[in-house]
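I have been asked to look over a protein record a colleague put together. Alongside the sequence sits a line of tokens, each denoting a local backbone shape. I have pasted the whole thing underneath without changing anything:
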Amino acid sequence: LFGRPIEHAGGADYDRIGILSDTSALYERLTIEENLRLYAKVRGRGERGIPALLERVGLERDRRTLVKNCSKGMRQRAALLAALVHSPELVFLDEPTSGLDPAARAEVHRMLRELRRAGTTVFLTTHDMAEAAGCCDRLAILNEGRIVATGAPAELTMEHARNRVVVATRTRGAVELTKDAASADAARELFAAGEVLSIHSDEPDLEEVFLELTGREL
């Protein structure tokens, strides 16, 4: 942890970490803004950055709403801000976009990409393969508590690519070819005849890779 054996970690190290879990605590009888002020104080940080955080996730108008009166999506966004209020260097996020509408989800994804570009290490747990592909540099697929594959999203899909190329043609429908010399000759003939509308190699998406590796549904 931060370059040292984790058993040597102390309070100063934990102050550099932010966590959003399914049990992240928000005080029900405090407003969203009061919760963030409390967490900032506990973390030894000032309150100056709180208005900007609230604005980023669309909670500025709801900042005085009691948490007990918040929707699930509002709670989720507030809990995410509580994890980020002290500008941590390492963040663990468990399903951070659960319960969010598409606009709020997209904003959270932008925040995660900005954190990544700024040098923050983000561990993201998700069942949303599109989210994993769009937000993560490196993935680990878990099956019953064991890591069964790791790599960049594109690497994982290419590793499981099928030996098939599909050519959409003008008059011959979809023509399936394999990735070999004989198919190269067939592809050249289709191009020479002006038949080719599009050509695609056949890679699975991450959801298909997950199902293939785990043998179960998402």
User: Anything to note?
Assistant: The two ends are 31 Å apart (CA to CA). The CA atoms of residues 133 and 153 lie 6 Å apart. The chain has two domains: 6-125, 162-202.
